[in-house]
Amino acid sequence: MSNLPNCPKCNSEYTYEDGALLVCPECSHEWEPNSDGANGDDEKVIKDANGNVLNDGDTVTVIKDLKVKGSSSTLKQGTKVKNIRLVDGDHDIDCKIDGFGAMKLKSEFVKKI
Question: Which Pfam family is one of those matched by this entry (predicted)?
Answer without folding.
Answer: YjdM
